[in-house]
Amino acid sequence: MSQAALVTILSTGVLLAVPVLWAALGELIVEKSGTLNLGVEGVMLIGAATAALVVKAGAGFAAAALVSLPVGALCGAVLAYLYVSRRTDQIVTGILFNLVALGLTTTLFARYLNGVGEVSTAPRYAVPLLSRIPVVGPSLFTQTPLFYLSVAAAVLVLLAVHGTWFGLGLLSAGEQPRAAETAGIDVIRVRWKALLAGNALAGLGGACIVLTQSGAFLPNITNGQGYIALAVVVLGRFKPAYIVLGAVFFGIANAFQFQLQSLPFAQGYPRQLWLALPYIATIVAVTLSRSARYPAAVGRPYVPATRRG
Amino acid sequence: MTERAGGVAVQTAHAGSGGGEGNRRRLTPPPRLRRPLAFVAALVIALAVMAVLFAVLGADPVKALRAMATGAFGTPYALNQTLQVASVLTMVAIAALIPFRAGVMNVGGEGQLAAGATAATVVVFTVGGGGGGLGVVLLAVAAAMIGAAVWAGLTGVLRAALGANEVIVGLMLNFLGALLAEWVIAGPWADTLAPQTRAFDEGTDLPQIPLLGGEFATALLVALAVSGLAWVLLDRSRFGFAVRVLGGNADAGLRAGISMRRMTVAVMLVGGAAAGLAASVQVFTVNHALIQNPAQGYGYTGIAVALLAGLRPRLVPLAAVLFAALTVGANSLPAVTGVSTSASLIVQGVFVICLIATGAITVRSRGAS
User: Fold this and answer.
1) CB pairs under 8 A between A and B
2) pLDDT for the residue numbered B213
3) Which of residues 213-272 of B touch A (CB under 8 A)?
4) Is B356 within 8 Å of A92 when comparing Cβ atoms?
5) Residue A224 and residue A221: Cα distance in Å, rounded?
6) Given a cut of 60, is residue B109 above it in pLDDT?
7) In this predicted complex, what is the ipTM?
8) Which domains does chain B have, with CATH numbers?
9) How large is the average pLDDT for residues B160-189?
């Protein structure tokens, strides 16, 4: 691979990693608190549609990204009511939520977004000096602000989870909810907060797809990126730094399909094989990372002792 | 990821009522009425959500609902189409239901349908040269069942042998199934105009039993047979007993002699075969070719149908007719109200979510890992 081709693949890979990274960071918070949120796919889809609607209404990229946060949190509230308060099965509820999200966004698309066409995507900013490093500069330091922010968010999530009282509550609710409650932590409240925050980030992740990649909303535009984010959390062993690496890995696996012309070795294989690469990589990743341990209480609804009469 | 012993537990609300849930002080209807009431309430909420959506989108909700009803049942053609979709949904729902009962979450129906449709198409073009009589069709049906079972079995094997999360693997295989179909479509049998393979030769059909002027009675009978078979298999056989043990619904002391791993693969293979049958019905009675994205979302709707039926095979055909009516009825929405057909997904999803949230249907999967 020539250096130019390598730079193209890397820089496209990092660009494509951004939505998955936001969603995976959100999902990390949620899973740390003891909830498995398959609905992340649907929340991303709703975030993407929101961003497209805001842009269509004439607002800028920043406004679109900002609006997707509370919309994602609103989805989180619906999911928290179901998962945490009603104690529904999390896998089944997540899948059904995604069905509703697909129906809702496709309906909105048909009514408001069909034929809007591609608008320009958010501009990239070159970081002074750093962007001039060969290969690394154009790949990592010539990206959209949403990428720089996502890396900063990874650091913040790390600090919040491991350095604050909120983080401690999160970890104890996800590992030993009964003990947490005995120690005075409101497990239900912690899980609600985690779902609000985590899905806000997932909504932003969905918005990134429209704002930094496609420039337009299409039905089911997420194409499984929410599910890939779930795999990235496991692959990243529930650590923000590894999750950044994992997201970039999937971004690069995803990048090949867009660069087939510039990669001579890629043209000997069917196009579908390159399209399949991220999904195959996900299967391999979840199979190999089975030793990564989920927080002990993930997926189990919690019945507070006070309500156990 | 540890090997866990739990599983899907399904029970009706009245079976579990009187348990120590602590809301005894609340005024609750008598146990026998709770479940039907929950169903009615859930349906009303789902329709209300849709009505609000229609109103927001500027369409007349009453007109829209009437259009859906007419579109699903209004003419013999519409009724025929509803029954055809119901047949496919019945079989896909059974494909999800059998593993669900064993606590294995088969969410890969979409990919299994695609793999089955692709396998059937490959047989028609390679063995039959693009068409053929009953022999070729039956061979293609068998290929569809094997293809879909392999697709499902892959998830089962990765789960059983390597402990991979069957939900994520199944979902990924859904996308890969669609790509597999796309790859075959792009091959030597491509149609010159549409993104699909050439249509099969005239007469490459399942044996026809006419009903309502269509050829779907065969599909209907096959679907009813599949749900009957699933009932016998789950409630009246040794296999069904092993499924209950795996699902944690039998005495733990009876686990001896049943291999959890082998059963995990077995339930996925059986489920996959049912999905393959659904795929061949779809291919031979509706599309007569391999189309892009052959599953069309039926894989996910099938999960909702299985849940709506409370994971009981006997109720699956009824649930399937209801969701088929919503799916087919929605086809007349764009012309009448300008609202997308996808609106029906919202009703279906909200309906089943409400049922689960009210406890009318109880599902417990094995959670993460």
Assistant:
1) 158
2) 59
3) none
4) yes
5) 9
6) yes
7) 0.92
8) 35-362 (1.10.3470)
9) 94
